[in-house]
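Tokens help. One example:
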Amino acid sequence: MMFKRSIPLLLLFTACAGGESEESPSSFSASFTASMGGDGDGDGDGDDDPGDGDADTTPGDGDTGDGDADTTPGDGDGDSGDGDGEPEDPCVLKCDGKIDSTPNTCDGPYFIGRTAAKGGFFFGGNTGSATDDENGACGPVDIPVNLDQGPDHFFRIWLVQGDTITVTQNPNNWVARLKIHDEAECVGNAKVCSETPDPATIEYEALKTDWFTIVADGRNLALGDAGDYTLMVDLEVGPNLDECSCL
């Protein structure tokens, strides 16, 4: 009895193997794959469309195509124009500046834009809660006229060789000390210090093209030389080319 039942199955298998089926072996394999729910790109979503996080070579999924995180522009990977930490155009900072209401250190200054300085930059602040970040920048502190021992505020501006700036610090009933460094790091002595305390004023011509640091200081903290003040900076453009063409 078992032998008789196996005959129809054997005949059916022979017919399929002999080409009597309408589908070829390859199409049968493809239809079988589709019926299992696969899609050929490794994500099991039933399609072959990009953008599915499948690590193939189709854009939009973490591979080497556009829009993912590889080396193609526009997707946060270190290339131009995608806001991913690439250095900004330096002219933006030079022309427009960067506001800081508490510019207490040389490493964290208020950047004065050239555009604002051309029109007359104005700042109102208070050094009462600032630190005494810089001393002895005007010369030996054993000479009273050189004292700059009050709390400081720092401002940075990009100057082109031949530019002239006029800087004025107006303290509110305390003795101010104004200084200018011809670099960004505030290293060593200032290039020039104010000689009058109220207002403290400096007119300075840039001898090179570089960042310059303005320090709004007080003479002696022990005597209360800190508090409310205003700072004004006026830039007169010199004869040399400003490569950023700030307005």
Q: What stands out?
A: Residues 58-87 form one domain. The first strand starts at residue 97 and ends at 98. Strands lie at 97-98, 110-112, 121-126, 153-159, 164-171, 176-181, 192-193, 200-205, 210-218, 228-236.
